[in-house]
Amino acid sequence: MKSPIRKPEKIAVVWHERVEGISTSAREIAEAFRADSHGAVTVDDYPLRDATFRARLKEGCYDLVMTLGGDGTMLRTGKLCAPLKIPVCGVNFGSFGFMMELPKNGWRSAIPKLVQGDFKIEERMMIHVDVTRPDGSTLSNDVLNDAVFARGLDVRPVRIAVRVSGNFLTEYVSDGLIASTATGSTAYAMAVGGPIIEPEMRTILLIPIAPHLSLNHGLILQPNDIIELTCRSRDMTVLSLDGGKSIPISEQDKVRISAADDSAYFIRISSDGFFYRNFIQYMQRNPSAIHQEG
Questions:
Q1: Burial level of 271, CB count in 10 A (0-12/13-18/19+)?
Q2: Strand ranges in 36-145 using DSSP code E only, listed in sequence order
Q3: Which residue of 49, 150, 255, 257 sits 20 to 30 Å from the alpha carbon of 165, by its own alpha carbon?
């Protein structure tokens, strides 16, 4: 966790287009930024997918982005802003909002702190995924949550051979395989029994989905490890990056996973302990499992 370098002067407020009434809230927030800064801060508001916003972002027109939506919106915004090292503040208009800093009705009290630069920045490691096809073509993407290998239409296990930094690890026979960041450790990886990792840790988690007579433990790897995966399945295997559309993977494809050059930067206004407060709030749903100190 580190303090911001300077007060923000150029802010973008963006939102998930499909949430009813969210554009009105975005414009209210933009106006609040202008009022609290007495015009010292310039503010634009756009739908997240707006081409003008994306062009201006790449031109370096902003030094802070506030995004309105759910965790998926935060993932997309964080990855867009990562190459430019622009910090993102999330306002939860979704159903879960584990990654968001502010509740839906909590943005108003946060505006003065954001204007004054009274916040800290949380750095989140991403992973880089390269898929090389037999014809030499490549598919490359940075991932903030996870890269998931899974079976396609047929209900048969997939076979994935894995090498770590040049050393053969194992061949998984399973429903799939997850390569996750620390951020993604509380997503799909947790659902299949993986460990929960503090989000600022730099590590790659590798965990199989329902393995059958093969290595069934998750592995926490160093950020400088290179993971190479080869599909051994005759049936269809697919790859999904951060929950995106399935990409077919053949036996001839080579997949390489490593730490990404860029990181995502999330704004934290409240005191230290954001992760643990959210962990208690969202994970311990059974009231009998929660006790107060003191």
A1: exposed
A2: 42-47, 64-69, 88-92, 120-132, 138-143
A3: 150
Averaged pLDDT of the chain: 91
**Does 71 qualify as catalytic in the annotation?**
yes
Q: Pick the catalytic residue: 45, 71, 146, 175?
A: 71
Burial class (CB in 10 A: 0-12, 13-18, 19+), 166: exposed
* Nearest by Cα to 233 from 180, 177, 195: 177
Smallest CA-to-CA distance from 264 within 125, 96, 60 is with 125
Q: Residues with Cβ < 8 Å from 94, sequence gap 6 or more?
A: 16, 19, 69, 70, 71, 72, 73, 100
Phi, psi of 165, rounded to the nearest 5 degrees: 50, 45
How far is the C-alpha of 209 from the C-alpha of 229, rounded, in Å?
15
Alpha helices in the chain, H assignment, sequence order: 22-36, 51-58, 71-81, 111-116, 188-191, 274-283
Average pLDDT of span 186-193 = 93
Q: What is the pLDDT of residues 131-181, one digit of tens each?
A: 999 999 999 999 999 999 998 878 889 999 999 999 999 999 999 999 999
Residue 194's pLDDT band (boundaries 50, 70, 90)? very high
Asked if 218 and 207 count as a contact pair (C-beta separation under 8 A), the reply is yes
The pTM score is 0.89
Domains recognised in the chain with CATH numbers: 10-119+269-289 (3.40.50.10330), 126-261 (2.60.200.30)
Q: How confident is the model at residue 294 (pLDDT cuts 50, 70, 90)?
A: very low
DSSP type of residue 187? T
The tokens for 157 are 């296990």
Handedness of CA 280, 284, 287, 288 (dihedral sign): negative
Say how far apart CA 165 and CA 176 lie, in whole Å.
21
